[in-house]
Amino acid sequence: MAQLKGNDRSAFVASMFGRISRRYDLLNTLMTVGMHYMWRRKAAQLAATHVSGDILDVASGTGDFAFDLLKHSNVNIVVGLDFSSEMLDVAIRKSVKLGLGGRFIPVIGDAHILPFPDERFASATVGFGVRNFSDLPKALADIVRVTRRGGKVTVLEIVRPQDRLSSVLFLRYFRWVTPKLGKIFAGDYEAYKYLPESVQHFMSAKQLTKLLKEAGLRNINVETKGMGSIAIISGERP
Predict the structure, then answer these.
(1) Looking at the predicted structure, is the pLDDT value of residue 118 above 50?
(2) Membrane-crossing residues (predicted)?
(3) 142: which DSSP letter?
(4) Can you tell me the distance from the alpha carbon of 113 to that of 13, in angstroms, rounded to the nearest whole number?
(5) 119-133 pLDDT per residue, tens
(6) Sign of CA dihedral 60, 225, 138, 55
(7) Where are the domains of the chain?
């Protein structure tokens, strides 16, 4: 697939996630052998520690990151923003089953132009989403803008491993296994062909950390999991 940019990329990604929304959770579990639950819990713990109030979860998708955040007693509500109404529909149904009431608030919106005032949230998170942003520096800057001073921004993302052998093994697995799983379980080979392509063209944890620093974060903590293929990066807005 040719590298799409700007509005074309956003429209493609929104359409793709809409198509796979009902099977997204299942495929995540299969592709990561269930490890995504542990990674997300760790990221949620970092995001919720030493903050109190409301949290914004950008690219909230089917809501799992938001629901892990809401397990922390110091979190009042989580606003889950995503540009796919189909993904948020899944999140809404799950929040009802979990009995969360009004603590999960879904919002359809664009991560590059967040519809919130400055310093609205105690913390902000993005789980497996920044890789799909069409203008990553702009989106990160806006996420920092709506996070209050002293608050946190936490990113959980698939990255290119620094170790050469790990990188080769990881990309081969993603390139060959992921599309086949997508075809079998979601009936959408093309959508799951995009995912390994997006990883191949994405950056390392070090490069992503640099962008977060340029967006204004300080005291940045970086943890990698999954042979260096998963980065959990959390920083404070001074």
Answers:
(1) yes
(2) none
(3) H
(4) 17
(5) 999 999 999 999 999
(6) positive
(7) 6-236
**Rounded CA gap, 63 and 24, in Å?**
11
Q: Hey, what are 180's tokens?
A: 């086949």
Run of H or E including 136: helix 136-145
Quote the tokens at residue 105: 């608030």
In 3D space, the residue among 192, 181, 238 whose CA is nearest the CA of residue 215 turns out to be 238
- pLDDT single digits (tens) 60-92: 999 999 999 999 999 999 999 999 999 999 999
Backbone phi and psi for residue 80, each to the nearest 5 degrees, phi listed first: -100, 110
Q: What are phi and psi of 140, to 5 degrees?
A: -65, -40
Helix (H) or strand (E) holding 14: helix 6-20
Q: Which amino acid is at 24?
A: Y
CATH architecture of 6-236: 3-Layer(aba) Sandwich (3.40)
Query: In the β-sheet with 121-127, what is the strand arrangement from edge to edge?
Result: 104-108, 75-82, 53-58, 121-127, 147-158, 230-236, 218-225
At 191 the pLDDT is 67
Distance (Å) of CA 172 to CA 20, 187, 199, 231: 22, 21, 11, 19
User: In this structure, which amino acid lies at residue 168?
Assistant: V
Do 157 and 130 meet the contact criterion of CB atoms below 8 Å apart? yes
* R_g of the chain computed on alpha carbons: 17
Q: Please, are residues 86 and 18 in contact by the beta-carbon 8 Å criterion? A: yes
Lowest mean pLDDT among 156-170, 190-204, 213-227: 190-204
Share above pLDDT 70 across residues of the chain, in percent, rounded to a whole number? 92
What's the N-to-C CA distance of the chain in angstroms?
40
Please give the structure tokens belonging to residue 5.
């940019």
